Amino acid sequence: MRFMLLFSRQGKLRLQKWYLAMSDKERKKMVRELMQVVLARKPKMCSFLEWRDLKVVYKRYASLYFCCAIEGQDNELITLELIHRYVELLDKYFGSVCELDIIFNFEKAYFILDEFLMGGDVQDTSKKSVLKAIEQADLLQEVWSGSSADKNDEVDFLFCTYLPLALALSCHFMGILQGLEERETTLWYLFCSSNNYSDQL
């Protein structure tokens, strides 16, 4: 997958994820052109189309269009299934997701996508596994926001919601947690006890 776009019927971009290097100017131009092409198509037309040197797969859910650009050798039906799986994940997390959920909780939509796809390829096909990772991240944020521990800039950066969970479990992150005074708190338990990380440190 080269990129994914979410936009409304009115042509408002709600989410964009790029998996190729490109200037901002070129990206904006591609987004504008692709939205015009997709929005001009009739409801009964095929969800696949050739555009530039790419194949575009899109599907409309309520007021939102989910649009993916793939390479020529990629499978359109699999891409359509990936779009549907992402919508299912959003539905499970938000409870019947709507456009307003994406607008006011866009960081969660990005986080779910990053747990599902990495570099344009599927990272985890299990909805249960992806949702569990997101729940753990949410719990971590809640615990940290209510913790009395000293929140220095370095640790605050690591709790950014755009950070994939796999990266949060890096050795550097574990070293910071190990240095906290309250080692046996929920923070440490969340990342170490259930995954046997405490035995490695």
What does this entry look like structurally?
- This protein has 201 residues and is α+β, with helices and mostly antiparallel strands.
- The chain has two domains: 3-124, Beta-Lactamase, CATH 3.30.450; 129-195, no CATH class.
- Helix content is 49%, strand content 17%.
- It is built from nine helices and seven strands.
- The strands form two sheets. It has a five-stranded antiparallel β-sheet with strand order 2-1-5-4-3, sandwiched between helices. A two-stranded antiparallel sheet has the order 6-7.
- Helix 4 (106-116) packs across helix 5 (127-146).
- It is globular, with a radius of gyration of 19 Å.
- Mean pLDDT is 80; it is low at 151-163, 169-173, 181-186 and 193-201.
Counted by DSSP, the helix tally is 9
CATH class of the largest domain: Alpha Beta
> What are the secondary-structure elements, in order, as H or E?
EEHEEEHHHEEHHHHH
CATH architecture of the largest domain: 2-Layer Sandwich
Residue windows where pLDDT falls under 50 for at least 5 positions: 151-163, 169-173, 181-186, 193-201
- Over the alpha carbons, how many angstroms does the gyration radius reach? 19 Å
Major sheet summary line: 5 strands, antiparallel
Integer tally of domains: 2
Give the DSSP E fraction (strand runs of 2 or more residues).
Answer: 15-25%
Helicity, in percent? 40-55%
Calculate the terminal CA-CA distance, rounded to whole Å.
Answer: 37 Å
Name the structural class.
alpha+beta
Number of distinct beta strands? 7
Shape: globular
CATH topology of the largest domain: Beta-Lactamase
Mean pLDDT: 80
Give the strand order, joined by hyphens, for the main sheet.
2-1-5-4-3
Membrane topology: Peripheral membrane protein
GO molecular function, one term: clathrin adaptor activity
Main location: membrane
Family: Belongs to the adaptor complexes small subunit family.
